[in-house]
Request: fold
Amino acid sequence: TPVTATYSPEFTKVTPTGTGATSTGPQGVPQTGTPIFAGGDPLVPIDETVEPTFADGSKQKTIPGQGTYTITPNGIVTFTPEKQFVGKPDPISVKRVDKNGTPVTATYS
Reply:
């Protein structure tokens, strides 16, 4: 007697997460921070072979009248202020991707 069965896989969306970083310091001194990223599932971690960038894909961004942000391959963001700048500079978005290629961003300010 023949018997048939079906197999219907279903896939759920995996969404990675990002947690921003902040720092505070004296005028004229560079500051650093490292946003933290996590995969949305243990089977789909953040892809460590893809270096973090700013949201536009760059590794350096200058904000006129404020200073310059740079990012290292391990995700440390440095803000070097202009000598006379005081206050809160515009925050910067850092982008990573998970093993599926799903992008995720977090800010540093």
The mean pLDDT is 96. The first strand starts at residue 17 and ends at 19. Strands lie at 17-19, 31-33, 36-38, 53-54, 60-63, 67-71, 77-81, 92-97, 103-108.
